[in-house]
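All the exercises in this workshop are built on plain-text protein records. A record pairs a protein's sequence with a compact description of its fold. The structure tokens are whole numbers drawn from a learned vocabulary of backbone shapes. Once this layout is familiar, the rest of the handout is easier to follow. An example says more than a description, so a record of this kind follows.
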Amino acid sequence: MRPGVYEVEMGTALDVVVDELGGGFSHPVKALHIGGPLGGVVPLGMIPELAVDFESFSRHGFLLGHASVIGIPKDYPMIVYLEHLFEFAAHERCGKCFPCRLGTVRGQELLHKARAGGYVIDGDLFESLLDTLERGSLCGLGGGIPLPVRNALQYFRDELEPYFSKLQSAGHE
């Protein structure tokens, strides 16, 4: 593992960046969060299909963003990761628009209650929350947080399903 800052030409295969430049993983990883908090949550199996370019990320339902790469450890619960994303967005929001001001806090609360036990998130309600954030937020923060959440719901469905009722088939319908 060789963490650092690397400049690569657009179109460089993502597996070259991860394996050759970065030196692979020193610990088991289940996904990469690429492009900052609003970027895509990419499962390891998708790495060979992606290149460092906007088109391949978009084609597969991800966002390249500023192309930072953070590994999500295999043993780190995805429900905790999603709660952290909402907590970040709730803390960083400006408070100007209702969808983001209320939605990011509500998303964090729902995920926390489900993770704590005894509460199951209504999948339709959660999708409505994501849709409201995406369509109604005035800036990229509130409008962007649904993408990594939907990526996680799609690719880590088995892990997240116990926390949701009526989980959408692909994280977005």
Residues 37 and 53 are 18 Å apart (CA to CA). Strands lie at 29-34, 40-43, 69-73, 121-122, 164-165. The chain has eight helices and five strands. The two ends are 38 Å apart (CA to CA).
